[in-house]
């Protein structure tokens, strides 16, 4: 059985992400020197809300769902992370427990920079706290944009914006990069946006008829980014509410 490659084998992939690529070369080297590779089968839990902080993670392969079980076990899904998105920085900054669940949607590989190693790096160089703060700030920007969408955009425009956001890693991918296919189904999109599955289905059907997307089993393929972006700008795209 072949051994897993060393974490630094993934350097080129990681540099496709804005946050990692923005770090000074020595800091990128330090992260990779302390990182360990973990593989997860589909459906495996990486951590649960309330768990102790194990460290900082990055998706290398597959997809990781971020969410939690809500009232009545209804899924509360916040996002889907693909490579090369980093996550887990909140608990690293405040020393608290995990705020949400992280589960592999498909077989996945992630990098883990263990908490003790990260704390040693920060003790040696306080700039690490700034870097982690920048990572968190990117998430907060996306969160504020999502909250604004809830009050200002109709259902179709919100779905278009979320598809674009997921494909671009919510701004965490390097400029000009995007995932063509987003690994979410209609129910999961609805859970992210507080929309019914029926509404999401109607909107995606309309998008598909316009040639903007193509629906797959548990995935949506983006065909026309410009049209989806224009739908967000206009605040409407086909049916506005379900």
Describe the fold and architecture.
The strands form three sheets. A four-stranded antiparallel β-sheet has the order 1-8-3-6. By secondary structure, it is an alpha+beta fold. Helix content is 43%, strand content 21%. α6 packs antiparallel against α7 (155-167) and α7 (155-167) packs across α10. Residues 236-242 have low confidence and may be disordered.
Helices, strands, pairings?
Blueprint: H1 11-14, H2 18-22, H3 25-34, E1 36-40, E2 45-47, E3 55-61, E4 64-69, E5 75-81, E6 86-87, H4 89-94, E7 101-104, E8 108-114, H5 115-124, H6 127-152, H7 155-167, E9 181-182, H8 186-193, H9 197-209, E10 213-216, E11 219-222, H10 225-234
Antiparallel strand pairs: 1-8, 2-7, 3-6, 3-8, 4-5, 4-7, 9-11, 10-11
Helix pairs in contact: 6-7, 7-10, 8-9
GO molecular function: DNA binding; DNA-binding transcription factor activity
Keywords: DNA-binding, Transcription, Transcription regulation
InterPro entries: cNMP-bd_dom (IPR000595), cNMP-bd_dom_sf (IPR018490), Env_Response_Regulators (IPR050397), HTH_CRP (IPR012318), RmlC-like_jellyroll (IPR014710), WH-like_DNA-bd_sf (IPR036388), WH_DNA-bd_sf (IPR036390)
Short overview:
Residues 153-226 form the HTH crp-type domain. With 242 residues, the chain is an alpha+beta fold.
Task: Please tell me the total number of domains.
Answer: 2
Instruction: Quickly give the structural class.
Output: alpha+beta
Question: CATH homologous superfamily of the largest domain?
Answer: Jelly Rolls
Strand content: 15-25%
Order of neighbouring strands in the sheet with most strands: 1-8-3-6
CATH class categorisation of the largest domain: Mainly Beta
- In CATH, the architecture of the largest domain is Sandwich
CATH fold-level assignment of the largest domain = Jelly Rolls
N-to-C SSE series?
Answer: HHHEEEEEEHEEHHHEHHEEH
Q: Which regions contain 5 or more consecutive residues with pLDDT less than 50?
A: 236-242
Radius of gyration: 18 Å
Biggest sheet, in brief? 4 strands, antiparallel
pLDDT averaged over residues: 88
Q: How many E strands? A: 11
Q: Give the helix proportion (percent range).
A: 40-55%
Distance between the termini: 51 Å
Structural shape: globular
How many helices? The count is 10
